[in-house]
TrEMBL record:
Keywords: Amino-acid biosynthesis, Aminotransferase, Histidine biosynthesis, Pyridoxal phosphate, Transferase. The keyword Secreted does not apply. This is Histidinol-phosphate aminotransferase. The gene is hisC. It is an enzyme of class 2 (transferase). Pathway: Lipid metabolism; Amino-acid biosynthesis; L-histidine biosynthesis; L-histidine from 5-phospho-alpha-D-ribose 1-diphosphate: step 7/9. CDD domains: AAT_like. It comes from Sphingobacterium litopenaei.
């Protein structure tokens, strides 16, 4: 096995001269900024947003670096994880030529982004217990396979993928292995962020949209080697993280204790919810979850889904998804919300 970033990159990206913004070309202290055609008078708001934001988000990355234990040069920030997913395709996959491996049932954006970028998808389904089919993955790889996406804990199943299996893929595949850790905060498993030095082909995705409670701000993170992060920075739109998001995220990152409390509460509520649902005989199976949601296999999923909608309770119908037949995906809510949900489900099955 030999990983070689230069060989993996698309030629147009290797040759790309990135846009050089006004704020890239000037660094340092200045009191008169007449370089970027901004409105020098201000913004029609109480807080001013008339200046372009820091293209590389140094303050946010420095704070994230200390929270995550990852150097700032190994961090990319995107407009949601979705931006990092799209950039992975644009950096590594030649439309109409290259392919990627997905392991369904999994997060839908990997497939949508592949289709947008005209990249072939090779699907190797998870096993019935929602683990990797390592032989199937090995058989699907060819010289044009550039990316493998592994989501752990996995959406929509909620379980973690065995660490040993992920390491096997990382060791045996010459392309990029993307581990999506959107739900890692709720998991007993260790993040892969401390293994970046071990695996040059590793890209980890995380997000502030779930445990951090900042879905509306749109901040996704990618952790990878400095070389891969430099490629992402070359491709991204110059000002992809707006100033309001940078300001609010910086403030939120000062509140780790609050987030940790919510994580504990969510996990406790998840266990209570599983216990309560397990007593309902029409609920046949609940996949052990390492996330802030559960996947439940139950009688008449579509009818229950509609019944809940009529009560103003919205869950996710996954009952037609391969390997999730008959399942609803339910996010763990507050104690009150979960009680309402359980009562409504019992009412439906009476
Ligand atoms: C929710 C989710 C994300 C988050 O995406 P953002 O664009 O950062 O909000 C990423 N991956 C998975 C598997 C998710 O479920």
């Amino acid at each position: 096995m030999s990983f070689n970033l230069e060989n993996l990159l698309r030629d147009n990206i290797k040759k790309l001269v990135p846009y050089s913004s006004a704020r890239d070309e000037f660094k340092g202290e200045a009191s008169v900024l007449l370089d970027a055609n901004e409105n020098s008078f201000g913004s029609p708001l109480s807080h001013h947003y008339n200046r372009y934001p820091d293209p590389l988000q140094h303050q946010v990355k420095s704070k994230l670096s200390s929270i995550k234990g990852v150097p700032a040069d190994n961090i990319f920030l995107g407009n949601g994880s979705d931006e990092a997913i799209d950039i992975l395709y644009r950096a590594f996959c030649k439309p109409g030529v290259d392919n990627v491996i997905l392991v369904p049932p999994t997060y839908g954006m990997y497939e949508v982004s592949a289709n947008i970028n005209d990249v072939e998808i090779r699907k190797v389904n998870l096993s019935p217990d929602y683990q990797l089919n390592l032989d199937g993955i090995a058989a699907a790889i060819d010289a044009n396979t550039k990316l493998i996406f592994i989501c752990s804990p996995n959406n929509p199943t909620g379980n973690s993928i065995r660490r040993q299996d992920i390491e096997t893929v990382l060791t045996n595949f010459d392309g990029i292995v993307v581990i999506d850790e959107a739900y890692i905060n709720f998991s007993k498993q260790r993040s892969f962020t401390q293994e970046l030095n071990e695996f040059p082909n590793l890209v980890i995705l995380q997000t502030l949209s779930k445990a951090w409670g900042l879905a509306a701000l749109r901040l996704g993170m990618a952790f990878a080697s400095k070389e891969i992060i430099a490629v992402f920075n070359k491709i991204k739109p110059p000002y992809n993280i707006n100033q309001a998001t940078q300001d609010l995220v910086l403030e939120a990152l000062g509140n780790v204790e609050q987030v940790n409390t919510w994580i504990k509460d969510t996990v406790a509520e998840r266990e209570k919810l599983v216990e309560a649902l397990a007593t309902i005989e029409q609920i046949h199976h609940i996949t052990p979850s390492d996330a802030n949601f559960i996947l439940a296999k139950l009688v008449e999923p579509r009818e229950l889904y509609n019944f809940l909608v009529n009560k103003g309770i919205i869950v996710r119908d996954r009952s037609k998804v391969e390997l999730c037949e008959g399942c609803l995906r339910i996010t763990v809510g507050t104690a009150d919300e979960n009680v309402k949900l359980i009562e409504a489900i019992k009412q439906f099955y009476i």
